[in-house]
Design a protein that fits this description.
By secondary structure, the chain is of the alpha+beta class. 37% of the residues lie in helices and 13% in strands.
């Protein structure tokens, strides 16, 4: 069974550390002020702008979820009850 699903996604990493180091509160406010943009930060404090998920990612997520549910119904190893 092929479980691969690799939609083309490119994240942009921006290093502002020599200019400004965002506090947790500043990062939170940046995310609140830009709700249509998905921001993340890595351990180095770099800002990562994540691409929006689209049709291919949605299809991959649905495929993975379906396979997990079917596997769990057969094995019941995940400890989840039927929905």
């Amino acid at each position: 069974m092929d479980l691969s699903c690799h939609p083309a996604m490119t994240a942009i990493t921006i290093n502002f550390n020599n200019v400004i180091k965002l506090t947790n509160d500043q990062f939170y406010q940046l995310c609140r002020d830009n709700p249509d943009v998905k921001f993340e930060r890595n351990a180095k404090g770099e800002l990562i702008v994540m691409p929006p998920t689209g049709g291919e990612t949605g299809k991959c997520n649905a495929k993975l979820t379906t396979r997990f549910v079917l596997w769990n119904e057969q094995t019941q190893l995940a400890g989840l009850k039927h929905f």
